[in-house]
Prior knowledge:
Elements: H1 2-29, E1 56-61, H2 71-81, E2 83-88, H3 94-107, E3 113-115, H4 129-142, E4 148-150, H5 153-156, H6 174-183, E5 187-189, H7 208-213, H8 227-240, E6 246-248, H9 258-267, E7 271-274, H10 279-282, H11 286-295, E8 300-301, H12 312-320, H13 345-359
Parallel strand pairs: 1-2, 2-3, 4-5, 5-6, 6-7, 7-8
The structure holds zinc ion (ZN).
Zinc ion binds at residues 60, 62, 89, 190, 305.
Amino acid sequence: MFRLLLLALTSTLLIGSLWAQRTPIDTSLHLDWEAYDPPSTLVVPEHPLTRASLPFIDVHSHHWRMAEQDLDKLIREMDSLNMGIIVNLSGRGGPALKAMMDNVNAAGYQHRIVCFTNIELRSIDEADWLENTLAQLTYDVSIGARGLKIYKSQGMTNVDKNGDRIRINDPRLDPVWARCGELGIPVLIHAADPKSFWAPQDENNERWLELKLHPGRRRTADDPAPWETIIAESHDVFRKHPETTFINAHLGWYPNDLEKLGEILDELPNLNVEIGAVISELGRQPRMANRFFEKYQDRVLFGKDSYNPGEYATYFRVLETDDEYFPYYKRYHAFWRMYGLDLPAEILRKLYYKNALRIIPGLDASLFE
Length: 369
Ligand SMILES: [Zn+2]
């Protein structure tokens, strides 16, 4: 009886092990690319950072409900990251901006939280649009706006009364850029999106997964215009207004071609860039990125874009450490791994706060001494 039982058990184990062998044979031939994300077996020194080594300024953040939000919580999160100042680019302007500033001032955080304002382009055809827009800008600055943010939609999807796309270099906007120069505030412009969004969504597209997960980001070659056209329109604005200081968001969407970005910066001395949402591009080219930061150390600002405290750790690790082959937090931005830039201390200081203190008016420098 015991032998029979043993035999039955052995054959069960045998069958079991046969089954166990069959499954991996199938998957090794047909493993879904999205599922294939093996943990790295590489053993190298690791220096994960949850806090920046120096206080920093995030010049690219969005807090649409700042008039009502719990600012104590925001400040606690900023403190835990070593973030000295956060720039809310979604100030909206007029009474909405006033309500935000009131909440910030009432809480006593005006030295830690600053706002940029926004303007409305859709009513550009109305006779009093320019007068109203310039008056709003002047008012917004008088109540504390430290800059103007232009959204990508404003040069892509906004149309005038004829149904024509409002180009960001539309001459009707020239007095606005000039006024920002007179008021001494920088203009942060986000134009277009990653070039891959305009490319066919196939096996040659590095953003294939992002376009699958966010089909609304997919563009056809000239919808609403070719990528190169929209980018060129933003450069035209920078070129036409040398007296105004501009910050091009997301490394001007040339994070994957830093030599080209360098040429643009060489041509346009009034232009600066920020690194929001493109750290995964820097993290795959640590040597090239180091040469770029060395040469353009006075022109690059720290930005993050979507506010998610847990994601800053990857920015700190890429910028500050010499770690190798560590993961990024969103596979649809980067299916590759990161390498630390180990930026020299003086370059890091400029990126983290010195450049922002110089470019954005009225910031409290004592937070960074
Ligand atoms: Zn943004």
